[in-house]
UniProtKB/TrEMBL annotation, chain A:
<feature type="transmembrane region" description="Helical">
    <location>
        <begin position="230"/>
        <end position="247"/>
    </location>
</feature>
<keyword id="KW-0812">Transmembrane</keyword>
<feature type="transmembrane region" description="Helical">
    <location>
        <begin position="96"/>
        <end position="118"/>
    </location>
</feature>
<dbReference type="InterPro" id="IPR042106">
    <property type="entry name" value="Nuo/plastoQ_OxRdtase_6_NuoJ"/>
</dbReference>
<feature type="transmembrane region" description="Helical">
    <location>
        <begin position="56"/>
        <end position="76"/>
    </location>
</feature>
<feature type="transmembrane region" description="Helical">
    <location>
        <begin position="296"/>
        <end position="317"/>
    </location>
</feature>
<keyword id="KW-1133">Transmembrane helix</keyword>
<dbReference type="GO" id="GO:0005886">
    <property type="term" value="C:plasma membrane"/>
</dbReference>
<dbReference type="Pfam" id="PF04039">
    <property type="entry name" value="MnhB"/>
</dbReference>
TrEMBL record, chain B:
<dbReference type="GO" id="GO:0005886">
    <property type="term" value="C:plasma membrane"/>
</dbReference>
<keyword id="KW-0812">Transmembrane</keyword>
<feature type="transmembrane region" description="Helical">
    <location>
        <begin position="128"/>
        <end position="147"/>
    </location>
</feature>
<keyword id="KW-1133">Transmembrane helix</keyword>
<dbReference type="InterPro" id="IPR001750">
    <property type="entry name" value="ND/Mrp_TM"/>
</dbReference>
<protein>
    <submittedName>
        <fullName>Hydrogenase 4 subunit B</fullName>
    </submittedName>
</protein>
<feature type="transmembrane region" description="Helical">
    <location>
        <begin position="72"/>
        <end position="92"/>
    </location>
</feature>
<feature type="transmembrane region" description="Helical">
    <location>
        <begin position="260"/>
        <end position="281"/>
    </location>
</feature>
<comment type="similarity">
    <text>Belongs to the CPA3 antiporters (TC 2.A.63) subunit D family.</text>
</comment>
Amino acid sequence: MMWFDLALGLGLIIAAIGVFRSEDLFRAVVLFVTFGILLALTWLRLQAPDLALAEAAIGAGITGVLLLDTLGVFRQHEQDINPRSSSQLPDISRQWAANVLALIACISAAGLLAWSLFNTLKMPAPHHNLVTVVEANIAYSGVSHGITAVLLNFRSYDTLLEVAVLLVAIVIGIGLRERVTTSANATSDEGQSKLSEPPALLTSLVRLLLPLLLITAIFVLWAGSTRPGGAFQAGALIAAAGVLARLGQIDIAARVTTILRLGLTLGVFIFLIVAVSPMLTGKPFLTYPAGWEGTLILLIEFMLTISIGLILLSLFIQAPRPRIPAPVRNAIPATGPNAETNKGGDQ
Amino acid sequence: MIPLLLIIPLVFALLSVLLPRLPIKAIAIPGLVLQLIASIQLSVHTYKHGASDYALGSWEAPLGIALHANGFTVTLLTLTAFIAIVCAVYALIYLKRYEHEQRYFWPLFWFLLASLNGIWLSGDLFNLYVGLELLTFSAVGMVALTANKASLQAAIRYLFAALLGSLGYLAGVALLYGQYGTLSIQEIALISTSDAPTQVALALMTVGLLMKTAIFPLHYWLPPAHGGALAPVSALLSALVVKASFYILAVLWLQLAPDAISPAAAQVLGALGAGAILWGSWCAFRQPDIKMLVAYSTVAQLGYLMFVFPLSIGTSAAAAELAWQGTVLHLLAHAFAKAAMFLSVGTLVLAIGHQGIKDLAGVSHRVPLALFSFGLSAVSLMGLPPSGGFNAKWLLLQSALSSGQWWWFIFILGGGLLTAAYVFRVFSVSFIEEARHKFAPTHWLLDVSALTLAAAAILLGFVSQWPLTLMELVPGVQS
């Protein structure tokens, strides 16, 4: 197994270097997804299956899809997606110097980290051992899986803020998207980049996969209370299902309606209500009433799953998308999909 | 009472996301008043009964997350609530011209307040990280609001710089957790040692936080982000957002592991601060654009915050206390003055329609109140008496003298002169009689809100003992 670990570690480094060194953005994205999968395997080897699930679903899956989607937008603009050949870059020697500097900085930072990690491992066991504290208290948490207990009970405040971060991300996404579409010609019918009809194979595959993904998501959610799984992973699966459906041109939530907003905020909303309600009886914020922990955690996780799934999916759908290349657009220099946003934005 | 300061902004944030068609603007002000009342109430409570802890979810600290309210944090909470309410009044009027932007301004504004309050109150290293993330995303979103090319570029640059900073901070948190087995700041402060892994962790976190605080030479992202944003956004970012990462830095250095910090390291931070003052002032002096001038002024003024480290580490208790008091006053005075300055500049630009300093000709006649607020805040920034800025610099100077570090004396004093140099560039143009442009009328509330903040910066000079009395209740930070 040691050889496998070694190969895994080397593969991680090579994939990471590849992402940076790749001349072709598409290859860089593929390598990035590879990196994510290798990282998920690494977490698995480190016996952190929860992290592995999250990394595979979000780090490799959703992020990869978003990056590929962005690439597609670049391509539609028929712009040069190869950054190194564009003329704006500084001369070769300066770039070379910058590369060497970056390399030295990376190696020294990595060395420093590795050195202090080894030092930490050599030291006597820390004064506190939270693992035993968690084990001692898990009976009162309402779930039997330690990580879920930490995420949704002992440190539920962190999770509440984390989901708020996701919500902020999608608020920004919708805001930018709306900005782009309102500043674009309203007549261009949103230009949902009708590439062509999806291939028949894709459509049937999507029909097959969709229910499967949804069932898996529900299982992962349900499993969370006793073993690895939970809202974030299940949410990512739902988002993946949505993306697939989208690719198969089954439109679920393309428009920002009140219902979609409700879905986006549902998780935080329910979380907040459950967190605040014990304060009415004089208990601290985020306390679960005794005996109800398990039920309430499941309720929150269920709502969070819906919201996280919708948020991740909306990040994909609401990403600023260009209009259909109209004849009015006279060649704007290569500035990416944001170029046309200039029109309405300036004061 | 403590969690109310988290619940209020979160509830209003959710309402603003959910019901964009509702008059969010109208409900914002009552919400802000509630928040101000809650923070004042907490301040009074802290004044009467001393610092207090709050165990979230009834789980005590090493297992759960503790919120901690002491004299310093309640001062920051009240400052945040006050500046937020004034900026909100300003934004109500100012954003009328930005129909699209204001729909997304309010949710981000509330999330920003939630994260700021969360950071001031948090007693947990990882929770601070989550708070920083929420803060970063809301701030970046606010910079990107107008979605034109310049603001998107500034936002992306800000995002990358801030994420790099977060990464450094997070790596340090992981190392500290590996070593001490807990994330609670109070617990680690009790058992922290001065060994190498602790120092590596602190170094990583420090670099990350310096990046987020935009301390020279890691300030490159700040001027386009702060200078390019909408006026109320710039005010919030310069007055409050950069202070959050400074606050965490101060907690790490002065409270979490003071033994692990060498006086030499403190001198390095002081030198960065001196560099920030020189470079920021020089750049501000050369800016043709008034908003960029104010943004570079922030780079320079943030430098003063760094002097707390050389002045309080390895020095006498008396010098350390003076340094701490001076730094807190500087933080408050700069928050008021810089918010006032960005708001008044926003009004000026609105009236003229141009951002160039040369275009300001004639504003002394046509937009006198905005120029007056600008002048008042400049008085505090320069450190002229009577103002909060003067008292802050006075205390810092005394601390530099009593600890025998005359070299900081030069920078503290010289920084005031440099500030005067770039501020007077504005005045030399604004008193020219002949106007270059037509002036558009501006709403009186814009002037009032800028003036309120500028007056606060001046008034702070008379009531400096208020925050300082509260500050004496902070255990373990003075020395």
